[in-house]
Amino acid sequence: MKTYSVAVIPGDGIGPEVVNESLKVLKAMEDVHGGLKFVTKEFDWNCSYYLKNGRMMPENGLEQLREHDVILFGAVGDPAVPDHVSVWELILPIRKQFEQYVNLRPVKLLRGLESPLRYKSHQDLDFVVVRENTEGEYSNSGGLTHEGTPYELAVQNNIFTRYGSERIIKYAYNLAAKRSKKRLTVATKSNAINYAMPFWDEIVKEVGTNYNVETQLYHIDALAAYFISRPEEFDVIVASNLFGDILSDLGAATVGGLGLTPSGNINPEKKYPSMFEPIHGSAPDIAGKGIANPIAQIWSISLMMDHLQMPELGELIVNAIEEVLENTAIKTPDLGGKNSTEDMGNAIVSQIYKLG
Ligand code: ATP
Ligand code: MG
């Protein structure tokens, strides 16, 4: 029996609602696989916890999480708590402390859904954005502000280290080498950001010589346009923290939006737990109504299975989601239907049993 321990942080708003459905999927994984066990432990670290205790997690919160193999995360955020608190006191410490330097976001148009890019097919929209998750433009390394001088000024540091750039670029090349197109697209802007980006490009060149993978280097502005005009070119895209953030949200919009898209915050060496979550937030506007789409959260379990080296289970989950979207009438309101979170979750689970 292979046993994994899963820390579960449902969070706020629709977080617990969609996490609940994804836990059914985790259970289904055990049943279809046989010798597999997920031991889950829930942590109530959310905005209510903050309002009671003045912090998002206990002082030894990270130590508690560290004992687990993976983390399943819902979403945090509540109108009563400033947004930066939940981000800076919970999500970012987890990402940084556990060296989750890869932010992995599949951009894949599922069967049964239409893209707002109406001339693009399912084959055209199927790639992965690999975003650097620990440094670059979001380093928070401090900056300067000079208010009150004749020229008001703000300076923010972007930190690109060789160590940080090399490891994300290597990860992306390894992923590209495993996929069929054998192509890596790299976001840059070395013509304008003329210290950090030439450095990044140089490292791409060095690392790339070790792989039998075609490398395409595009400036970020052109690349954003190509996301719309020729997404079929892409297979794996690697980008810095800021560029990857923008590209992955843009990518999500081309395949149906927030209720559908997952992300993995990965520590590839498995020295620390990796964390899986939907890209959406706590959606206070629809929380408590039981109508949130659980697909993004359920798909995050698929990424978790890939990470735990059970890609056949990851694929089974995506297939089950596609079966429901393509061959049943079940749709949550964001997809234009009237079904509940639970209807959608149950339908996907029963497809998993059928296909598994
Ligand atoms: P955050 O700051 O945490 O990212 P946000 O307010 O920017 O939160 P979301 O909470 O993701 O963004 O919500 C944005 C919009 O998308 C809301 O109108 C919300 O109802 C909708 N939405 C988000 N997730 C889902 C979902 N799973 N199902 C249906 N609608 C969703
Ligand atoms: Mg948001």
From TrEMBL:
PROSITE patterns: IDH_IMDH. Its EC number is 1.1.1.83. It comes from Virgibacillus tibetensis. Its cofactor is Mg(2+); Mn(2+). GO terms for molecular function: tartrate dehydrogenase activity. It catalyses: (R)-malate + NAD(+) = pyruvate + CO2 + NADH. This is D-malate dehydrogenase (decarboxylating). Residues 5-348 form the Isopropylmalate dehydrogenase-like domain. Keywords: Manganese, Metal-binding, NAD, Oxidoreductase. Belongs to the isocitrate and isopropylmalate dehydrogenases family.
